[in-house]
Structure formats: structure tokens, C-alpha cells
Amino acid sequence: MTPGKKIIELARKTKGYLKRLEEEGVKQIPAAGRTHLEGSPKPMPDGAKGLTPRERLIELKNEVEQCVRCEELAKTRHSVVFGAGHAEAKLCFVGEAPGYDEDQQGLPFVGRAGQLLTKIIESIGLSRKQVFICNVLKCRPPQNRNPLPDEILNCEPYLVKQLEIIKPRVICALGNFAAQTLLKTGKPVSQLRGNFHDYHGIPVMVTFHPAYLLRNPDEKRKVWEDMKRIKSELNRLKP
Ligand code: URA
Predict the structure, then answer these.
(1) Angle of CA points 163, 234, 96, to nearest 5°
(2) Contact, 57 vs 87, CB < 8 A?
(3) What is the mean predicted confidence (pLDDT) over 100-111?
(4) I want to staple 53 with a disulfide (CB 3.0 to 4.6 A). Which of 47, 87, 133, 176 is the partner?
(5) Is 95's C-beta closer than 6 angstroms to any atom of ligand 1?
């Protein structure tokens, strides 16, 4: 067979394979090699199937990318925004839900609020690749409406698994939805920030969401203070 014919044959077979997957309900194929997940080749203890944390996160990412638990979100999303960063990050940031830019790019916090979050992370000498960034909801609510209680319930197990795999030393909850989901409280950020709370033995600092800071720049000082508390806690917990 000539090289040209081989390519045509390969394209035909690939098309048939993708059609079969579509008929079986597969809506997205994870892009190989573009996971935006960092990690070391550290062996895992028994019970983790001998996979590294990064491999376990990739496995979970592939599962979340097929999720149709929330009918409306699964229909309207452009991408599932699993999260990005280091699979053994000492610090995890949890936001609310992807917005337009995040949905388009498949990555968390890449819009205006994300640019501010990058500065917040860098203010304590860390980079986005050293931390892990994710959201309570992995899909964008249409028109950026608030997450619904059922959507949070549907998506929460994924966040729980992410945190189980990463085992961060400190979690930073950005805004009310992240704080209330992790801490099982109805209290607002204004009452929760400034002190550490507990999530299964992991200290949680609650602070204002970067999108709120864009609207209320006078509150930025409080977030810098919360970040300094996080830095001290990370230093205290070293190595
Ligand atoms: N707001 C969030 O809560 N998460 C994002 O990823 C982007 C904006």
C-alpha cells in the first residue's frame, strides 16, 4: 500500500472508531500529553495500584471528563475543568466553578480572576505549577450562575478524591462555595477568614475569592494577610 493510501485507511479506521465511541455515549476524548498535571515518579503505598499520585490524578481526570451527573452542565459545557498543578502539591487552592475562559481552555483560573490568583500565589514565593488549583464544580454553570446544591453534591466526590490523592499540607478555600463545601458550614468568608479550620486533619485557610477582590480591591490587604498565615503554616510543617 502506498503511504498516501495508508493515511487514508488510517483516517477511515479512526473515524469508525470515534463513531462507535460516540454511539456508546463517549462525549470527550482526553488530550494525551496535555494533562497540565505535574508530579514526581514517587512510588505509592499499597492500595494505590502502584500508581504515582500524578497517574492517579490522570485516571480520575479521565473519569471526570466522562461525567454526566448534572444533565444541564454536561450538555452546555465546552470542557470539563478538572484542575491543574502538582499532584503532590503542599498547597491546594479550591475555587467555585469554571467561568467562560476556563470552560473554553479547560483550565482553572485563567481569566481575570485567575491572573489575580497567580499574583496571590506568587506573593508567597510559589508558582502555579508548584500548587494545585481546582474548583468545587468541574463544569461551568451557564451564564456563570451560582452552583446549585445538587450540582455541588454530584461533583463533591471528585474534589474529595483529588484531595485524597494530593494530600496537601494546607488548603486555601477561595470564596463562600469552596469554604462552605469543604467545612460543611453556612458561615460566610467574612466570618471564616483569618484563622485555620480543619478538613480531615488538613488546615484550611478561607479567604476572599479573586473575583470578589476585583470588585472590592480594598479587601486585598486581608488576602495578603491570609496568604502570610498560609506561608508560615507551610514553613512550620516543613519538610
Ligand atoms: N472562578 C472560579 O471560582 N474558578 C475558576 O476557575 C475561575 C473563576
Answers:
(1) 40
(2) yes
(3) 98
(4) 87
(5) yes
Atom of ligand 1 nearest to the CA of 108: 6
pLDDT of 203 strictly over 70: yes
- At 231, list the grid cell: 506561608
User: Across 60-114, where does the E strand assignment appear?
Assistant: 84-86, 91-95
For residue 173, the cross-strand partners are: 94, 206
Does any ligand 1 atom lie closer than 6 A to the CB of residue 135?
Answer: yes
Note the pLDDT tens digit of each residue in 19-33: 888 887 766 665 555
- Give the residue, out of 96, 155, 177, with the most ligand 1 atoms within 8 A of its beta carbon, to mutate for a pocket test: 96
How many angstroms separate the alpha carbon of residue 196 from the centre of ligand 1?
22
**Reported pTM:** 0.86
Cα of 175 from ligand 1 centre, angstroms: 10
Which class does domain 43-236 fall in?
A: alpha beta
Angle at 119 between CA 115 and CA 122, to 5 degrees: 135
> Alpha carbon 137 to chain centroid distance?
8
Task: List the domain boundaries for the chain.
Answer: 43-236
What atom of ligand 1 comes closest to residue 107's alpha carbon? 6
